[in-house]
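Table 4 source record.
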Amino acid sequence: MQRADWKARETALLAPWAMHSADSRGRVHPEPPHPFRSPFQRDRDRVVHSAAFRRLAHKTQVFTGYPGDYHRSRLTHTLEVTSISRTLARALSLNEDLAETLALAHDIGHPPYGHAGEDTLDELLAGEGGFNHNAQALRIVELLETRYPRFAGLNLTREFLESQASRAVRGKTAPSILEAQVVDAADSIAYDTHDADDAVELGFVELEELLELPLVAEAAKRVRSQFGPLEPAELRRAVLHELVDSQVAELVDRSLARIRDEGIDSVAKVLAAGRIVTHSPQTAAGKIRLERFLFERVYRSASVLEVRRPAQARLAELFRWFCDHPEAMPAGFVRRAESWGVRRSVSDYIAGMTDRFLEREHARRL
């Protein structure tokens, strides 16, 4: 086997609607090809070795400050999204390396305290472009990571950058390749299902309440028909597995049918077709019901808000302190403040912190 055989492998395995590595438009800063890794394999490795990716291990997914090792961190959520994305990509004969890269990087722009931290930074930067974790991920890979001597950022492929940029467009659905679409779908499946799992584990809701929701009730019906009566813990695990598996199977079937029916045989036709990787109206409605339930009973519950508000206050206080003392930031952020302004540079610094580092810095500075 030749060392550059990734081209032959992709030709044999990938569909014409997939993004082939040989068709990549390259990088902003040209680099010589690698002898045995494709461009998207190199992107994946650069993300995994980045500081921003490592910090996900100590960033909140939903439950800020709650004890225990069961519920998800931002990193474990990312790995679950990556697993689902690879399954979808393989079933649709897409470029798994690119899908995996997009999934691994999809949340690296999140600040400490999850969406609570994002909301706070967005308010603090009102009138200056606000803060969005998808846009912040682009800043990280294009500007903030400093791992190479000849350029700032990670110098990822244009396909990665454009796909991530499509996620950063607020309130719009930008055209995107199928590898990016499967990551969006996988993210939705993962956070719906696994946030529900964590909520039950931490006592925010009872399993019986989830079983009243149509999407969960249908999954439970299929589980009981296959396994018969189960103990609550067994039922919960089986239902969560069924929720993921059934949604993935539906996406594969519907996407392949759409590709076949519309004669989609190129990336150009994918971009012209709009969103292809979509759920049935019934499943989409069920997901909306589940998400509303989680929003009301979990994300905006009194006990979550009781922890969320003080955490947001600490983040805002530390942000203001560094705005008044920018020289206390690391040298790179001080230099970038000259070009991007103090408040944006402070936001970059705060957003890169883990939950526990922010807590230590707040105690130290204030």
